[in-house]
Amino acid sequence: MAKKAPRRTAERILEVTLDLFNRFGEPNVSTTLISAELGISPGNLYYHYPAKDELINSLFERYEKALSELLGAADGVRNVEDAWFFLHSLFEIIWEYRFLYRDLNDLLSKNRLLETRFQGVLKNKTRAIRALLSGMSRSGALDIDTREVEATANCMVVVLTYWLSYEYVRDPRRALEPDNAQQALLRGAQHVLNLLAPYLEAGQRQHLLQLAGVYQTPT
Fold it and tell me: Would you give the DSSP letter of residue 144?
């Protein structure tokens, strides 16, 4: 049992660090604050993670793994209902690691590993969205010119990547609080899917409007 203790401490450090990063933003959280929140000495923290970048990179690896597992499901999207569920699930992962998106430009400017790995994330998101478009086209839910697929996929990825930043700018004091999570994610999924509205089969377009109506709240 004693051999498992260090691993458990390392897990607790990451859990608390993620919570603090999400609440206050990564630039505003020091390793001193993390160790104080955990009730451990700074030396104990440094034993597991000798630098703050190692904490960030470890959390990013978790995010990347969860994202990769979900993106594989894009091949199974056939209609608006599937796409809505897929995009909402994607936003849930983004929300869980929202510090990455809230402080994205700052993080990329300071962390070379994150800079290169996040480029891979964008490529994987775009690849998944192209698969989503392809599946919906084959099923007849979507009618889009092949020449428009790349630009449409890129636009969808832009909204996916910067939606939480938009929410934050719109309402800095409340946007990234847990109580507002579901509505923020639903709005994000709706706006990404709205980019497909001109290409949707009539019944599918109506279904999108119905879904949006069910979850619509004043902004």
Answer: -
The residue whose two tokens read 């993390």 is: 34
Could you give the CA distance from residue 123 to residue 1 in angstroms, rounded to a whole number? 42
Calpha distance 59→13 (Å, rounded) = 11
Distance CA 192, CA 212 (A): 12
Q: Which amino acid is at 65?
A: K
- Asked if residues 66 and 93 have their Cβ atoms less than 8 Å apart, the reply is yes
pTM: 0.88
The answer for 217, left when phi > 0, alpha when psi is -120 to 50, beta otherwise, is beta
Q: Do residues 97 and 42 make contact, with C-beta atoms less than 8 angstroms apart?
A: no
Predicted local confidence at residue 2, as pLDDT: 45
Contact 214, 187 (CB under 8 A): no
**Does the pLDDT at position 18 exceed 90?**
yes
Work out the average pLDDT over 143-149: 96
Please, what is the average pLDDT of the chain? 91
